Amino acid sequence: MKKKSLFFAALILMACTCGSIGEQSTGVPPNAKIGQWVAIGKNVTIGDNADIDRKVAIGKNVTIGNNAVIGQEVAIGKNVTIGNNAVIGQEVAIGKNVTIGDNADIDQRVAIGKKVTIGNKAVIDQGVAIGKKVTIGDNVSIGQKAAIGNNVVIDQDVIIGKNAAIGNKVVINQGVIIGDNVRIEAGRHDFPRRDYRIKYNYPKRPIIIKKVN
Hints:
Blueprint: H1 2-18, E1 33-34, E2 39-40, E3 45-46, E4 51-52, E5 57-58, E6 63-64, E7 69-70, E8 75-76, E9 81-82, E10 87-88, E11 93-94, E12 99-100, E13 105-106, E14 111-112, E15 117-118, E16 123-124, E17 129-130, E18 135-136, E19 141-142, E20 147-148, E21 153-154, E22 159-160, E23 165-166, E24 171-172, E25 177-178, E26 183-184, E27 196-198, E28 209-211
Parallel strand pairs: 1-4, 2-5, 3-6, 4-7, 5-8, 6-9, 7-10, 8-11, 9-12, 10-13, 11-14, 12-15, 13-16, 14-17, 15-18, 16-19, 17-20, 18-21, 19-22, 20-23, 21-24, 22-25, 23-26, 25-27
Antiparallel strand pairs: 27-28
């Protein structure tokens, strides 16, 4: 309950800096669907057929692509770009200077820090927490309630299991699969490229890496 109250407080604060509730910028096309109690900041561009649910706060200098869907009670910081056909679930918090690619799918209750890039067709499951200055490549899948630290780089086609925790400054190369509940400590670990599976914690427990069939 306390967490939900804090979220609403943040939403109201952002709404105060965006503009009046229900205000629409000149960049809103007539075929976009805008719900009740939506606060839209200055210099916001919303694409054709975009669908924005109620109680959403959108900061200034935001671009939302064509056919994008934004769930209810979402807070979007300034200087954010959301790609075409992207889906943002309810109660998602997006920090400033974030780019979300085309066809990305971000489930409910995800927290995204500032200066994050999320690639095309990335899938972020519910309850994931992403730190600041993170790069997530195309076609990446991150399981529910995973935690991604600051300054992390995740190359394309990576799969991260549910409840996994990735420490600060970790670099995960293309095609690596990280299992459920795996913890990877902070640091620049040299994981192999493509088609390998990380099953156990690293480096505190022995790491088992198996080639994927």
